[in-house]
Each structure stands twice: as C-alpha cells, then as structure tokens.
Amino acid sequence: MKLKTVAMIAFLAVVLTGCTSGRPDAASVDTADAGSISLTGGVPEVVQPLEVRQLVHDTMKDKRVAFIPLLYKGFKITTEWGIQMQRGFESLGSTFTVYDSNFDTDQMVRIIDDLIKSDKADVLILHNPDLNVLTQQIKEAQAAGIYVVVLNMTSNQSGDVFIGADLVSMAEEITNKAAEDCKAEGKNQIALINGPATDPWNVLYEEGVKTAAQEQGLEIVDTTDSKWQADLASQQAATMIERHSAGLCALMVPWDVIALPAGNAVKTAESEGRVAEGQVGVYAIDSSSDGCGGISDGLIRASIAYDQSGIGTGALLAVQQLFELGNAPGSQRSVAYVPHVLIEKANMGQVTFACYFGS
C-alpha cells in the first residue's frame, strides 16, 4: 500500500475517533433502518451503497468552500493543495473559491472578515501566516457557524481540523542527516537560514533542529531571518560562509524555495575559493519540482519530502467529515499529519509524493 493511502486512512481514523462522542444536542440515529439516512452524527451503521453515496452528494451540494492561502498563483505548494480540493469539491457539487492574499497578512484578515460578515462561506480553509494573527477570525467564524480547516501552518487558536506536516520530526531527521555528513568531514558547525520568528513553520522547524543538533553535538553558529525572500537568503548564506568558513559544514533551510539561492551562494563561494568544494551542504524541507532540480544539480544535498497532494486531499476529506457528522463548528477539534521521507539524489525518483509540480 502506498504511503499516501496509508496517510488518508490514518487521517480518517483520527477525525472519526475525535468525533464519535457526537454533538451534545444531536438527535439519536436509528441505525437499524438502513433506508433512513440522517445527516446528524454521520451515516447509519447499516446502509445501502447507493443511498450513502447520495447522502454525501446531498450533504456537499452547494456548500461554499473558501480557500485563503498566503499566496496562490505560481506558488507550487498551495496550488498543489488547491487543485486536489477543487477537483474533489466540484465533483461533489460544492463551490470552491480561492482568495489569494498575495503574501499580505492584512489583506488575508480583511478577506476572512468579509467572508464571515457577508455570510459568503460554509467552510474556511486557511493557510495561517502567524501563530496568533488569525485567532479572532477563527473564533468568529466558528461562532458564525462556519467550519475552519487549517493547513500546514498551525495556529494557537485551533480550527476544527488541522492537516499538515510533522515539522519537528522532519527538522530532527534532516538535522541528523546533516550531522552524519558533517562528522564525515570532521566538522560540527551549522547555521540556520530561517523564516520570520512568529511564523508557525519557523517555530516548529527551529525546535526540531535545535533538539537534534544538541543530541548530535552540532554547534549552531549563526541564525538569520530570510523573511522567505530568495535574494535575502542568498545574501545571508554568503555572509555565513564568509564568517564561519573554517568550521561550517551545513546550512539548514526550512523551505526548498530559499534553499536554492543558498545553494547557489555556496557554489559561488566554492568557485571563488572561499570554501572547500563539498565542505558546506544545504539541507532543506519540501520537494517541489524546483527543489528536486536543486538536488539533481547539487545545490541541495538532502531534503525532507512530505505529501503535499495528501494535504489537499486531506482537507477535502476533512470537510466532508465535518458536514456529514454535523457537529457544531468549534465543538470538536483534531490534528492529522501527512507522511514524510528524507530524499537525496539517489532516492528522490522513488518517492511517489516528491518532486510535485503544483498541477
């Protein structure tokens, strides 16, 4: 069985387990009558296949699904999620609309506020940019009877479902790989090119790297905030090499998009003789087609691939579960993680969810 299938089964188990207690005011369901299908509390224990299929389609028909990512157009991660969701929701008769905040947090907040106040959505699917910035919006949406699903960037305020990567584990695994390579070179200094300090992705990533680095005896000699900007990541990588060239063996980068310019900075330093060839490796998270190209070209030594398509499919499944079970928004919450695996040049072609194109 492929990893993706296993992940989806595990996700459904988590969600269903979290929802079995039912809504406190929900009417009981007569499971003895297979022909009497209720929307409250899910489907009966005994069903007719055609009837339960119709239940799902009737439940999802005309539901308004709003996806508000950090960035959409040309952004492989979110388009990978969005395409999976669009295919699924539209086949069920739901309306799926993307509201692109274009990396503008204020604009994202305005979009969500308008969707809530104007009653334009039955469910919000959020790509959270900060641990706290959407706290009020999540609360208000649930109070207004709108389900909230959060993808990949967790928030201190829980939505009804979170689906994403287990970033702490991924950061630990990629750091262990860096430690293995560093020890082979007789070095132990690493540097971090991070994102913004309050970005949930960055917070979890840094925790995982620090934990593994301490266990492996690695010294973190520098940490910077790239603000997720490629040009800045390149400049920071060059500066780190200049400062720490004697003992530096790894640049740890939490996203392949900014790992690529960091890798180019390493190659430039090698060509100019400022650091020995192969001394400094770049270690990343994610595996877009661009990231895989970087691995093939030697810009990224290793990365952690995680199931981006599975996140989009997981959101599709989660929304169906929420509407089928019919519990009040905010009354029950669950978290589910997709699978991940370390990739490098030798194995990346064998990982089904690596090297995605966002299409």
Write the layout of secondary structure elements.
Elements (H helix, E strand, L loop, with lengths): L2 H17 L29 H12 L3 E5 L7 H16 L3 E4 L6 H13 L5 E4 L8 H9 L3 E5 L9 E4 L2 H18 L4 E6 L5 H17 L2 E7 L4 H15 L3 E5 L3 H16 L9 E5 L3 H8 L5 E5 L1 H18 L8 E4 L2 E4 L16
Parallel strand pairs: 1-2, 1-3, 3-4, 4-5, 5-11, 6-7, 6-8, 8-9, 9-10
Antiparallel strand pairs: 10-12
Helix pairs in contact: 1-11, 3-11, 6-7, 8-9
Provide tags for this entry.
Rossmann fold; elongated; 11 helices; alpha/beta; 6-stranded mixed beta sheet; 359 residues; 44% helix
Q: How would you describe this structure to a colleague?
A:
By secondary structure, the protein is of the alpha/beta class. It folds into 2 domains: 3-159 and 308-339, Rossmann fold, CATH 3.40.50.2300; 167-306, Rossmann fold (3-Layer(aba) Sandwich). 44% of the residues lie in helices and 16% in strands. The strands form 2 sheets. Strands 2-1-3-4-5-11 form a 6-stranded parallel beta sheet, sandwiched between helices. The longest helix has 18 residues, at 167-184. It is elongated and about 70 Å long.
Count of distinct structural domains: 2
Report Rg.
22 Å
CATH architecture grouping of the largest domain: 3-Layer(aba) Sandwich
Beta-strand percentage range: 15-25%
DSSP, total strands: 12
Major sheet strand order: 2-1-3-4-5-11
**End-to-end distance:** 24 Å
Mean pLDDT value: 91
Low-confidence stretches: 1-39
SSE sequence, one letter per element: HHEHEHEHEEHEHEHEHEHEHEE
Q: Main β-sheet, in a few words?
A: 6 strands, parallel
> What is the CATH fold-level name of the largest domain?
Rossmann fold
Superfamily at the CATH H level of the largest domain? Response regulator
Shape: elongated
